[in-house]
């Protein structure tokens, strides 16, 4: 799969711009703040129907403007698809070939993409929610039913939590009403747990292999999925937690508390890994996601690499570029502020290279190498 072109109107710092991409490697270069990452985000918008960096569409609207639009042509299995979004008056329209989607969830996973960003180390540093979001986003692209199940689970969980709050305020508990949410929560929870467990099992060898290739087997890494639901007696544990749930005014047991433990040499990478090791770890997580997504989507997803060279040593940069230049990967977009420095690395790439020189939300020049 590839993106052939992109058109922006009033998207972040772009007033009006059009780009035609190479099928190989596209390098976006320019000074800090010129708009390189914004271009990747526009492509992310078309693939995932939202920005990778903000939850509110308003933040993608160029300051002082009243609407933005992003258009792009994806090519998948030799067929072109025109994907477009228009945001105006707080409302977003999302279309494929000029037709609105009934549900935006129908779009997720159609044009798969993996974005690697400097913020990825938040997956290590931040709390379990970041890690759940990361795997949820991957598994949702792999299987739409996962996403639908997760939406249903979160809906019932929210309802149950608001009941718990109401009961605390009124100092009265309707146990029958509360119990009516247990069945859908448990049903969806078991399904989600089983998806996570099986997909992580498939993910792990891909991750280990990628990390080894990236680092020449410098260290052993692993990851584990931790869930209350893994306990065969979970149903009882969940029911027994009712008193605690009433006191804390929230549901304390379930897949919404799952976490993924990231390990290096058997220890938590958060406390023992160097910055370079942490960066390699999250890079391997993203590239392994690419392989898993590639398998399930029967296409090579787009790979967007934002500012990836920082903190990687030369050996790891060379391994990374060799890897993504291989046949397992398709079209690639890379942002790089210091192109002169990295041209040394790029010159060994066999794929066709197109360089976009960017300044203040404008493409100044394009060069095919
Ligand atoms: N909604 C918006 N309206 C106008 N400008 C915006 C908006 N959102 C972001 N920008 C501008 O976009 C610029 C940042 O662009 P971007 O993050 O793409 O830069 P970059 O080229 O990737 O930089 P770096 O090399 O530092 O990572 C900033 O100047 C910021 O002010």
UniProtKB/TrEMBL annotation:
An example Gene Ontology biological process: SOS response
Presence of the UniProt keyword Nucleotide-binding in the record: yes
Domain RecF/RecN/SMC N-terminal: 3-61
Example of a GO cellular component annotation carried by this entry: cytoplasm
Subcellular location: Cytoplasm
Pfam families: SMC_N
The organism's place on the tree of life at top rank: Bacteria
Keyword entries, A-Z: ATP-binding, Cytoplasm, DNA damage, DNA repair, DNA replication, DNA-binding, Nucleotide-binding, SOS response
Binding site for ATP: 30-37
Xref: InterPro entries: DNA-binding_RecF (IPR001238), DNA-binding_RecF_CS (IPR018078), P-loop_NTPase (IPR027417), RecF/RecN/SMC_N (IPR003395), RecF_2 (IPR042174)
GO MF annotation: an example: single-stranded DNA binding
Homology family: Belongs to the RecF family.
Function: The RecF protein is involved in DNA metabolism; it is required for DNA replication and normal SOS inducibility. RecF binds preferentially to single-stranded, linear DNA. It also seems to bind ATP.
Protein name: DNA replication and repair protein RecF
Species whose genome carries this gene: Sporocytophaga myxococcoides
């Amino acid at each position: 799969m590839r993106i052939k072109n992109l058109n922006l109107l009033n998207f972040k710092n772009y007033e009006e711009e059009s780009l035609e991409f190479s099928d190989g490697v596209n390098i976006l270069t320019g000074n800090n703040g010129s708009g390189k990452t914004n271009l990747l985000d526009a492509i992310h918008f078309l693939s995932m129907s939202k920005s990778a960096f903000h939850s509110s569409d308003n933040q993608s609207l160029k300051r002082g403007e009243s609407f933005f639009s992003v258009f792009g042509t994806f090519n998948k299995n030799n067929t072109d698809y025109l994907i477009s979004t228009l945001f105006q008056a707080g409302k977003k329209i999302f279309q494929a070939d000029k037709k609105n989607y009934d549900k935006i969830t129908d779009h997720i996973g159609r044009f798969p993409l993996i974005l690697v960003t400097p913020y990825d180390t938040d997956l290590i540093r931040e709390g379990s929610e970041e890690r759940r979001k990361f795997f949820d986003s991957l598994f949702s692209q792999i299987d739409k039913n996962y996403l639908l199940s997760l939406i249903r689970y979160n809906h019932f969980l929210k309802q149950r939590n608001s009941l718990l709050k109401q009961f605390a305020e009124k100092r009265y508990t309707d146990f029958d009403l509360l119990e009516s949410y247990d069945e859908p929560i448990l049903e969806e929870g078991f399904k989600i747990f089983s998806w996570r467990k099986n997909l992580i099992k498939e993910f792990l060898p891909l991750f280990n292999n990628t990390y080894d290739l990236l680092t020449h087997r410098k260290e052993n890494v692993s990851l584990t999925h931790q869930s209350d639901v893994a306990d065969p007696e979970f149903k009882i544990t969940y029911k027994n937690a009712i008193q605690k749930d009433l006191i804390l005014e929230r549901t304390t047991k379930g897949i919404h508390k799952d976490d993924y433990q990231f390990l290096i040499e058997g220890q938590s990478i958060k406390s023992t890994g160097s910055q370079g090791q942490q960066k390699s770890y999250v890079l391997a997580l993203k590239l392994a996601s690419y392989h898993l997504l590639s398998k399930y989507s029967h296409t090579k997803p787009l790979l967007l690499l934002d500012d990836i060279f920082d903190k990687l040593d030369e050996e790891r940069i060379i391994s990374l570029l060799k890897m993504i230049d291989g046949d397992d990967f398709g079209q690639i977009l890379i942002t790089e502020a210091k192109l002169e420095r990295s041209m040394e690395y790029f010159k060994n790439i066999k794929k066709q290279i197109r360089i976009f020189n960017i300044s203040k939300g404008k493409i100044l020049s394009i060069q095919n190498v």
